[in-house]
Specification:
Blueprint: E1 3-10, H1 21-35, E2 38-46, H2 57-67, E3 73-76, H3 79-82, H4 86-96, E4 103-105, E5 109-111, H5 116-150, H6 171-185, H7 190-199, H8 212-219, E6 227-230, E7 233-237, H9 246-256, E8 278-279, E9 286-292, E10 297-303, E11 311-312, H10 313-328, H11 342-367, H12 373-398, H13 412-417, H14 421-431, E12 432-436, E13 459-463
Pfam families: Recombinase, Resolvase
GO molecular function: DNA binding; DNA strand exchange activity
Protein name: Recombinase family protein
Length: 465
């Protein structure tokens, strides 16, 4: 009895002429019957390309079984189902040749890899298959490049916010992108926004739950602003409608890509004023840490330098929150609105584009021999420093929306309670500078039995603007 192995594979780009693995297996079984072979095992790598270089588990198992003498012959729909690179072909020959394992294919006929002529035919078929793939990739790249130049979509996975054609808007998803953009510009966190989307039962375009990383990728897409991207470069306006205006998208990019943006969650950011409030003694930012009292350890604010102060974090947070809500409840709350920053935003975008063009010009001048390495380095350092200043300003303008949805609301307390920690911190950073002083020993003025010793006069709030 000759034990035959059937290997079937189909890649994402449907290179098997539309045949699925089930149809390939059926054709191979018919081929086995014609040659009097007994099918002992079917090895299937569905939705995997032989060209991409990604591991093919079933293919690896088949090679192991050939080496272990558990397979006497191999059946495939075509040789390009088995391999599409010279390296893989030589590995396959090395596995089959010592034991004289023949290969039978539905479309390319039999291959006897134990003979020089059989190996020559296999190598010729492999070279043709390699050429076809490379030629196909070349055509696809040309098509994508032309689509980018024309502002058309180049195809691929359905982009979130649009239908499968990549152009037609999905209103519900478009609102999600716009709302998340506003939330991040207002000081919210990607983690909190992803959690909110999951809590509402919303999923990505592939049906998976949201993560901070996936949300960041979606929000940073140039297509959200109606811009076409090709190989990481914006090449011009696109044919589809934007989900957000370009000014807001560029502000968001400045915020999310800013070097100072925190990407890791830590205990220091579980409290409202960590890193925001200042020590009243040494002037450095405070942090939240556990400090022991006579009875228990209490989360407290203390400075990073020498622990000049030690104040109950929950009490200070509650007081500052009450001050913010009171300010938002005043009739003159609209005075907190900053002047329209759109004209400055447009100017900053032009400045940033000019600086990037000058950086590219320096690189071209160096390549042409017009400047030397020292001039390239010094010029690049100066331009990058100026570009960093412009991008910092763009980020600060984008974060100026921290008060969005808080001004003029019927219930400021409820609005404040509905914000996540990152958004509350952004509001405080926009409105005030908090300085925490040492507490005085003993009971504060007006103390009553059962109340806290917290003294509001030891927390100084200086309003900005």
């Amino acid at each position: 009895m000759t034990r035959a192995a059937i290997y079937v594979r189909i890649s994402r780009d449907r290179e098997g002429g539309g045949l699925g693995v089930t149809r390939q297996e059926q054709d191979c079984r018919e081929l086995a019957d014609r040659h009097g072979l007994t099918v002992a095992q079917v090895y299937s790598d569905n939705d995997l390309s032989a060209y991409s270089g990604k591991p093919r588990p079933a293919y690896r198992r088949m090679l192991d079984d050939i080496a272990a003498a558990r397979v006497d012959a191999v059946l495939a729909w075509h040789t390009d189902r088995l391999h599409r690179s010279p390296t893989e072909l030589e590995e396959y020959i090395s596995a089959c040749e010592p034991r004289g394992v023949p290969t039978f294919t539905v479309k390319a006929g039999p291959l006897d890899l134990s003979t020089p002529s059989g190996r020559m035919v296999a190598r010729q078929l492999g070279a043709v298959a390699r050429y076809e793939v490379e030629h196909q990739v070349e055509r696809q790249q040309r098509a994508k490049q032309q689509a980018a130049a024309d502002g058309r979509w180049g195809g691929g996975r359905r982009p979130y916010g649009y239908e499968a054609d990549g152009v037609t808007l999905r209103p519900d998803e478009a609102r999600v992108v716009a709302r998340a953009t506003d939330a991040i510009l207002a000081g919210g966190s990607l983690r909190a926004q992803a959690a909110e989307l999951n809590g509402r039962g919303l999923v990505t375009s592939t049906g998976r739950p949201w993560t901070a990383t996936e949300l960041r990728k979606v929000l940073l897409r140039p297509r959200n602003a109606g811009l076409r991207e090709h190989r990481g470069e914006i090449v011009g306006p696109a044919a589809w409608q934007p989900l957000v205006d370009e000014d807001r998208w560029r502000a968001l990019v400045s915020v999310l890509t800013h070097p100072g943006r925190r990407t890791q969650w830590s205990s220091a950011r579980r409290w409202l004023l960590s890193g925001l409030a200042l020590c009243g003694v040494c002037g450095t930012p405070v942090r939240a840490t556990l400090m022991s009292t006579t009875a228990r350890s209490v989360p407290s604010y203390t400075c990073k330098v020498s622990r000049c102060i030690g104040r109950n974090a929950a009490e200070v947070d509650a007081y500052v929150s009450a001050v913010v809500v009171e300010r938002l409840s005043r009739p003159d709350v609209t005075d907190l609105l900053a002047a329209d920053s759109r004209p400055e935003s447009s100017t900053l975008q032009r400045d940033a584009a000019t600086l990037r063009e000058r950086l590219d010009g320096l690189a071209s001048a160096y390549a042409d021999g017009a400047i030397d390495v020292r001039q390239l380095r010094e010029g690049s350092e100066r331009l990058r420093a100026r570009l960093a200043e412009v991008e910092d300003r763009m980020a600060s303008l984008g974060q100026g929306d921290a008060l969005a949805g808080l001004l003029g609301v019927p219930d400021p307390q409820a609005a404040w309670d509905g914000l996540d920690l990152h958004r509350r911190r952004a509001v405080i950073d926009t409105l005030m500078t908090v300085t925490i002083h040492r507490s005085r020993k003993g009971r504060p003025p007006g103390w009553r039995p059962g109340s806290s010793y917290f003294n509001p006069s030891t927390v100084d709030i200086a309003w900005k603007g």
